[in-house]
Amino acid sequence: MKRLLLSIALIAAMPLMATACGIGEMSADGYENAPVSHVHEHVVMGDASPIPFVVIDVRTVEEFKSGHIKGARLMPVDVLEKHFADIPRDKQVYVYCHSGKRSAKAAKMLIEHGFTRIENIQGGIEAWKDAGYEVVH
């Protein structure tokens, strides 16, 4: 009986968890600013994360090659609009750059084009590395 009640509670909570993480501060432009620790938890969980997500790196090709978050997709901010069709609308979308300026621009662009589950990783890859989290090449 306890297992059944727990299952029902988890199923009931899924839509709430899937709509937005709700961890970070909401920007005036309509996206959240997510702390690196929050995003790291999801990256570590991968496909087991209760909130389906994608990580988008909006830096240049050269910056991406110098080290990026595992599983991140490269979509430089200058050509991001060309990739809108490749970005899932049914997943949480985390965007990052070097320190947060370009990813804030990208997050705003995504919101303006109808994306609703956008989070800018606070401090970008620099904050990620400062926290001691792994980058891949």
Itemize the secondary structure elements and their pairings.
Layout: H1 2-19, E1 25-26, E2 32-34, H2 36-45, E3 53-57, H3 61-65, E4 73-74, E5 92-96, H4 101-112, E6 118-121, H5 124-130
Parallel strand pairs: 2-6, 3-4, 3-5, 5-6
Antiparallel strand pairs: 1-2
Write a structural description.
By secondary structure, this protein is α/β, with parallel strands linked by helices. The protein has a single domain (20-130), classed as Oxidized Rhodanese, domain 1, CATH 3.40.250. Helices cover 38% and strands 15% of the residues. The chain is built from five helices and six strands. It has helices at 2-19, 36-45, 61-65, 101-112, 124-130; strands spanning 25-26, 32-34, 53-57, 73-74, 92-96, 118-121. A six-stranded mixed beta sheet has the order 1-2-6-5-3-4. Strand 5, helix 4 and strand 6 (118-121) form a beta-alpha-beta unit. The longest helix is centred in the N-terminal third of the chain and has 18 residues, at 2-19. The protein is globular, with a radius of gyration of 15 Å. Residues 5-20 have low confidence and may be disordered.
- Share of residues in strands: 15-25%
Helix count equals: 5
**What is the count of structural domains?**
1
Low-pLDDT regions: 5-20
Strand order of the largest sheet: 1-2-6-5-3-4
Q: Can you write the helix and strand succession as a string? A: HEEHEHEEHEH
CATH C-level name: Alpha Beta
Tell me about the largest β-sheet: 6 strands, mixed
The CATH architecture designation is 3-Layer(aba) Sandwich
Helix content: 25-40%
Q: What's the rounded overall pLDDT mean?
A: 88
Shape by Cα distribution: globular
Question: What structural class do you assign from the helix and strand content?
Answer: alpha/beta
Number of strands: 6
Rounded to an integer, what's the Rg over CA atoms?
A: 15 Å
Return the CATH topology: Oxidized Rhodanese, domain 1
CATH superfamily grouping = Rhodanese-like domain
Termini separation comes to: 48 Å
